Amino acid sequence: MSILDSKIPSGPIAEKWTKHKNEINLVNPANKRNIDIIVVGTGLAGASAAATLAELGYNVKTFCFQDSPRRAHSIAAQGGINASKNYQGDGDSDYRLFYDTVKGGDYRSREANVYRLAEVSSNIIDQCVAQGVPFAREYGGLLDNRSFGGVLVSRTFYAKGQTGQQLLLGAYSAMNRQINRGKIQAFNRHEMMDIVKVDGKARGIIARNLVTGEIERHSAHAVVLASGGYGNVFFLSTNAMGSNVTAAWRAHKKGAFFANPCFTQIHPTCIPVSGDLQAKLTLMSESLRNDGRIWVPKHKKDAEAIRAGKLKPTEIKEEDRDYYLERRYPAFGNLVPRDVASRAAKERCDAGYGVNKTGQAVYLDFASAIERYGKEKAFSSGHKNPSQEEIIKLGKEVVESKYGNLFDMYQKITDQNPYETPMMIFPAVHYTMGGLWVDYNLMTTIPGCYAAGEANFSDHGANRLGASALMQGLADGYFVLPYTIGDYLSSDIQTGPISTETKEFEQAEKEVRDSLDRLMNIKGDKPVDYFHRKLGLIMWNKCGMSRNEKELKEAIEEIAQLREEFYSNVRIPGKATVKNAELEKASRVADFLELGELFAKDALERNESCGGHFREEYQTEDGEALRDDENYRYVSAWEYKGQPKDAVLHKEQLIFENIELKTRSYK
Amino acid sequence: MKLKLNIWRQEDANAKGQFENYDLDGIDGDMSFLEMLDVLNNNLIEQGVEPVEFDHDCREGICGMCSLQINGEPHGPDRRVTTCQLHMRKFKDGDTITIEPFRAKAFPVVKDLVVDRSAFDRIQHAGGYISVNTSGNTQDANSIPIEKENADMAFNAATCIGCGACVAACKNASAMLFTSAKVSQYALLPQGEVEATERVLNMVEQMDKEGFGNCTNTGACEIECPKGISLENIARLNREYLSASFKG
Q1: Which of A245, A261, B88, B174 is the most buried (most CB within 10 A)?
Q2: Which of A21, A124, A277, A285 to mutate to test the interface with B (most CBs of B within 10 A)?
């Protein structure tokens, strides 16, 4: 029997959040001044939560490992943020955004949370515009929208290809306002090393000052973890190099259940791997799929000639190209959701049609968009009979105005001009839908410990649609946590300041020191990256875009072995008492080596294919994912019991009252 | 390719630093500059030597964390890129590459190539925001139309990544380009107008307090800026400052 209480309010879905807000307890403004909150991570979720909580009157301490909150990885999000504004009049509504998100997540997210997300989405846009976020506008001065994968309406607001940057800088500026008022104390270049529990409640953290190496104790009445996802368990991913699972994982080890760790999004449009020593993959915004057409050669001999450098893609005739997404999914074409697009690319490459040296790439082609836009532009500016040359010139200008910075970035990395030759792309690990289990209030199974944004599991299900992560980060931070945390803290108004001079803090600090000493004293032969790369390969090969029972079992064994090897042979030069990037990495990789095993265990347990989790044993005859709603319509929430292999599974059954579960079809 | 690296090593803010030479082999043109440093560090660790510390995070040119003065230029020889987006194909086999931290009084060295750029944050704390509550009870986003041209200019200013290349490129170590980008973004939007006077005065005052030098219009900042932030922003800052000084 499950011990998970999701605390979903009763009543019709569209009224749950309002009802809940009306019923939960509030904290009087005078009492808020006596309450401290710690926010770990200052990306979209953390920065917006910190700013809002400080504005409400709480004393907030923020922690981030970068030198400034402005560098959090939310900054790299390119495409946009969804909101059900229906400015385009194309039939959008809260319900449709809710429906698309639940369907896109392959019915493995929680209805009530997703509805709330759709409900507050419009407010997010209003809020950001009021903060001076420069969204793209039309010539009439109103906001512009575009569409994204998996959706049939135009509801995505954007700022060129730098939407994440602008939204993060907006939240950061809101934080700055509170820092200036003295309501936020920002601890930058600090890493959370553990969570401290007193009488079962989260009451603080142990942090390491990354410049001085000092171990610090910080207390609070509640702790918010907004520390992002764990895609770096794959080593190569689109995540920032420093993104890590430590905050969530250490909380997991202290009692927070970890939900759906196997749900990882593989993003279809990344720049392919170019060499063995590569450290990072770069995403090309999914918005490119609005205008780019994806194809590989229809004939194997052409693909082989391209790989050998004997043929250029532009030399392949239209009829010899296989626009496989348009062929397989006529209704959505190039705009199918990410998991579908990713698997289709893998399928073509595995079948021998890949187009780069390694055979692990497909084309994303803008030639027809350039021509279409060029004709439009010529026509609307009075050239009724333009030459082909003029059309191409005008078309390139339009494409540049829409995607210029992305094209530049592609050219810098690959040394190829995407206006002249199609881009090469391949799927890569991007976003993790799993994370700490939270209830409707975003509280984990540790009382007083909350998780927001990518660090929690609740809104995306097995797959994440484009432009929904930014939406969730800001919704959690600006509009959900500030209400729900008050309900919890209302019983804390008599508590007074929390001392850090207690046995609980002492014990937690000692454990942190011991684990760092243990790492420093191994004095083996191999750098941390050696182990991280090995882990990444196991994860990609056996827990990646497709999984099967045999390989998952192997992965579990191999990761456990690698962990042993790590603890006997890692070498960390230098001292723990100064800035030491290797020690920072080692500590994070130690956690990935545990999480990776739980990830594989979770994937093995889920005998179905769904969203980003594709089990080869469960597919239809034509290779589509085969979900099993009868047996797997639940959230798997793992309880820590020592080694990852001993983790205990709890199930939260998902109840769908408003959306009928259907097989996702994009045909 | 084979390279000779001449790298600044400094244990901490108070230690005396010096250049060290390292030979490196097996570098491929498709590698990024930071991947080249990863290879160096991997070798150093295997030899039991402390790796070279440098700042980096997103490695896709947007977080602004990476820095490095490469052969005398912030973010190296290529234009409009950060160090993480600089690729080794810009160098030749046998090249000697000198790598230093950004040099400016307001950016003290933390370790090796890592500098402390928190002065930029403090300039932002002084007024780099619009004083609106985050309650969501704001007016509909389309209720204030903004001319596309202004919205685009505000966006262009807002794309500053705060990496500090402008300071490192400037002979006076001035932070004018950075500060002007922030001031411009808000000056160009109706939402930012109400507190424009206070904003520009406070931000400039804080900028001076941090120990950045004056702007003498040499324009090196614009040339080295990875995001192409324009000198027009400095002109706009000067206009805003002047008019604010009269009002203030």
Answers
A1: A261
A2: A277
